Amino acid sequence: MSTKIYMDNAATTAVRDEVLEAVLPYFKEYYGNASSVYGIAKESKKALEKAREQVAAGIHANPAEIYFTAGGSESDNMALRGVAEAMKNKGNHIITTKIEHHAILHTCEYLEKQGFSVTYLDVDEYGKISLEDLKAAICPETILISVMFANNEIGTIEPIKEIGALAKEKGIYFHTDAVQAVGHVPIDVEEMHIDLLSMSGHKLGAPKGIGAIYIRKGVKVKPLIFGGAQEKKMRAGTENIPGIVGLGKAVELAVAEMEETTARLEKLRDKLIQGVLEKIPYSRLNGHPKDRLPGNCNISFEYIEGESMLLLLDALGIAASSGSACTSGSLDPSHVLLAIGLPHEKAHGSLRLTLDRNNTEEEVDFVLEKLPFIVQRLRDMSPLYEEIAKTAKQ
Fold this sequence. Notes:
42% helix, 3-stranded antiparallel β-sheet, globular, 7-stranded mixed β-sheet
C-alpha cells in the first residue's frame, strides 16, 4: 500500500481523469473566446452551454439559472452582497448561522459595516439550527436567509427543505452555501425551495478556480463584477471555458455515481469513526451522528494539540486537517467547534478526516492502526493527561 494517504477531501480533491480528458481540448484545440463568432469560438460557446446544462441537471434547475464564477467564495459574495444591494429598499436584515464558512461570515461582517443588520443563529451540539429560532429571528425587514447545506468541518447536514419552505412562506429569499454538498448528496432546488445556491468545482473532482451560482428566475441580484456582457451581464469577464467544462463533467459524473459512492463512503466513514472512538479514550465525534456528509469524520481528542497530530500523521504519509483549510495557520480554535459547545482545549485537539471515491478500506485500516499510537505519544507529553492517567490507576 502507498504510504501517501489523502484524507482531506473537504479541503480540495484531485481532478478526475475523465474531467482532465474533457478539459484538455479547450486549452489547445478549442481555445476561442466564446463571445466571438468564428468556428473555434462557437465550439467554446457550445461547450459553455453544455456545461450549464450539466450543472443545472445536477441540482434540478433550469440551465438559464446557472451562472459561472471563480469558485464558492465568489458565489457566496454574489449571493449575499448581490441580494443586499438589490433589496436594500425593501429591508436590511439578513439571517445566517454561527457555523458558516468564512466566505459567508466575513461578507456579513462587511454588510454590517454598510448598514445591514445580521442575525447569527446558534446551533445545537450537533451543529443543527433550530427552525423555531429561525422563525423567531424573521422580521419585516428580513430580505435573505443564508444557511449552509452541509458544514465543511463537522459534516452536519441542515434541514434545508424545511428552511426553504419557511422562507417561501414568509416571502424571503433563501440562499444555501452548498460547496460541500453538490455532487455528494441529492439536491433539488425546486423541491427544497432554494432561491440561490453556491458551488465550487474543486470539491468534487473539477479544477480549482471554477464555481457556479444558481439564481432562481425572478430573484433580484446585482452583479459584483462589471465589464463585458458575459453570463447575461451578471458576471463580466471572458469565460474560463476549460474550468467550466471540468465543472460540468464533474457534476455529471458525481450525480450519476452518487448512490453507489455514498453507500461505499458511508461504510468506510462509519468504520473509521467507530474504530477511532473504540481504540482511543477521551475522544468524541463532532457533528450529527446520522445527518452528515458521507465522507466526513471529525473527532476531538482531549489532552493533545491538533497541529502536532497533523505533523505526526504527515510523517506517516497521511494528509488530514484539524479544521477548515481556510483557517490553517491560525492559533484560534475552530469557530464551528466552539459554536457546538466545545471548550477551547477540546476544540484545539480536533482531527478532520474526509474521504472520497479514491479512498480504500486498506487506507482506513492503516489510519486506525497508526492514530492511537500518535495520540498516546502526544498525551504522554501532556502534564494534564499524566494526572488523569494517575487517577485512572488508583
